[in-house]
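Shapes recur. Our protein:

. . .
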Amino acid sequence: MRKMERALWLLVGLTLVELASGTIWAGEPVRGEPIGGEPIVNVGAATNSAPSPAAGAAATVTNRTVTPPGAASSAKEEKYLSTGFDLLSAFRLETGGDGPVSGEAAREASEKIMKQVPASVKTLDEKQVAARGFMLPTKVESGLVTEFVLLKSQMGCCYGMAPGINEWIDVRTSGKGVKPLMDDLITVYGTLHVKDVWESGYLTGIYKMDCERVQ
């Protein structure tokens, strides 16, 4: 009896090793049906076909220039130009000195800033766009966000790293505001303004958006 038990356990052990190594079902298809179960599927069949590119795509969150979800099927969304920070922040922007500027120096500084903005970005000025990024609320009323900064990455809003001047969009919502969505990659629909913005002699941004809705 003990010899039969040892032989049985040896057989089970060899079967587990073969399952782990992938040798089971790698040759001829398994035939027959399991007792009281679904038909056996030859899931372990070997193949030399390349994996589908979409297999790992869903695991990566990105704010690249993409078509917003549902844009192809919705006439309402087709009027928006899809954009992302891979375009808006793809250039180096020299902002000049650390001190405030005024008068003639302010005009020259403004011209210097806008000369560095590529034509591909300037063409988005006053256009209806759909931009993707992360929300950092700057004004909240009755639990709804009425103003926020759309950031290229969460590093600026969650880890205190200062983003570049072309790595955020100053967004103002219409109506009562939108619900806070700080942890999600969002798409903001609205009119984009590409123009240097100055406050008290300091450059505070080059992108503004009048938000119509957030998804």
The first helix runs from residue 2 to 21. The radius of gyration is 28 Å.
